[in-house]
């Protein structure tokens, strides 16, 4: 592993902080299949429009999503594709842990 300076560690911590909310993870998951509008994300997540807009703003500030305006619509897409590799690794590891827990309880 490469050495990490304080600036890099701070940036990494900030990204993880943004990823620490289940709604934001759900939004990223939905955007994995292509760009979507706020209304499409509201339908896909079951969350309210103001809530989705708030989370999208945080994801944009963190540099994880892009916004493209077309007429009255704003389309959101992934700005940092590496995020899916990270999520695959973390989700895969957690799924294995849960499976092991379930097997030990059986």
Automatic annotation (TrEMBL):
InterPro entries: ArsR-like_HTH, HTH_ArsR_DNA-bd_dom, HTH_MetalResp_TranReg, WH-like_DNA-bd_sf, WH_DNA-bd_sf. SMART domains: HTH_ARSR. The keyword Protein transport does not apply. Keywords: Arsenical resistance, DNA-binding, Transcription, Transcription regulation. The keyword Amino-acid biosynthesis does not apply. GO terms for biological process: response to arsenic-containing substance. GO terms for molecular function: DNA binding; DNA-binding transcription factor activity. CDD domains: HTH_ARSR. Residues 4-98 form the HTH arsR-type domain. This is Metalloregulator ArsR/SmtB family transcription factor. It comes from Thermohahella caldifontis. The lineage of its organism: Bacteria, Pseudomonadati, Pseudomonadota, Gammaproteobacteria, Oceanospirillales.
